[in-house]
Structure formats: C-alpha cells, structure tokens
Amino acid sequence: MVCAGLAKEQGFRVLALTIDYNQRHRIELDAARVIAERVGVERHVILPLDLRQFGGSALTADIDVPKDGVGDDIPVTYVPARNLVFLSLALAWAEAAGSKDLFIGVNALDYSGYPDCRPEFVQGFEGLARIATKIGSEGGTVTVHAPLQHLKKSRIAQEAARLGLDAGQSWSCYDPLTDGRACGVCDSCRLRRAGFEEAGLNDGTRYSD
Known about the structure:
mainly alpha, Rossmann fold, two-stranded parallel sheet, 7 helices, globular, ATP binding, QueC, zinc ion binding
C-alpha cells in the first residue's frame, strides 16, 4: 500500500501485482483488491502460483505459525525464495509493459530474519536484471525501489497516514481466524501492533488477542 502510494506521489504510473500462492492468509488477496482500487493503480493483476505444491513454510504447508514472539533466526514463516520469485514475475511484466522500475515493500530494519529482505538481495536482483533481460542487453538498467527497507514500522505507518491511506485496509496477520480477525500474536501481528503504537496511530485491524 505505502509503496504504491509513494510511487504515485513520485509520478509513476502503477501496475500492481499480487501473487495468489495459495498462502494460509488468503485474506490478504481481498485486501490487495481494495488497496489497488483505493490507490488508483492503472491495472491490478492477481496471478495464481500454487506454492503449496512445494511447501516448506508455515504459510504454504500444514505447519503451525509461531506465536511465541519475534526471534533472531530465520522463522518457519519464511517461504523459500518467495521475494526472488515475486520480483522475477514483476520484472517479466515490467519488461513486457516497457517499464524499468520495480517497487517492493521489503523491510530489513525491524525484522531482518528473512534473507530476501536484505539490501544485498535488492542490489543483487538489480544486477541479475541487467543480464537477464532485453532491456539490459540493449544497455538499459532496471531499478528496484525498496523505499521501506530501512524504515521502522512506526515510520511506515506514519507514511501511510501522510499519504492519506487507510492502513486498516492493509493486512499483515499470517494466521487469521475464520471470522476475519487477525490472530494478534504471530510475528507479523506483533510487529504491526508495535509499529502503530509507537507511531501513536490507529491500527484499524480487528485482533483476536
């Protein structure tokens, strides 16, 4: 949501890509539809890619989502190479659409447990894009914008408010209840709640706990 808002603010025309990877928290797909309409993107594609066929994560297999707090190790909610897969798909669409700019909302400051959220990953992908595309072979460059990478969660919440976006329309919980409430205790919920509390802003999320 905030990435799209920032891209629009900078004058970019926005094509929004959401991956339906058969994730546990499928409610985020509904949130993505609402956000795309609210932000006013030029086109929104929801692309099916069933990563449950691979498994290997609490988001794509029958593995319990941890509820005991944020740790230092790579958590079981890590989906193998997810952001690499997502950015590759975004790059393919961008090149087909004649764009050289990708935006991704990775964040490494508050939670650096995921290897595909690090600055090295973003920089490495830019290098890969140069040698893997027609754009690159013709001397062009692809820029991967990660404007949230070094921002605290509280600052991201503040940016949403500054852009006039309703953060309550976004979704973070990895293990939502069947009635549509967020669990409130998974890592993603904990980080979200702490960020909004630190920012002194209304979260807008209905939590179970």
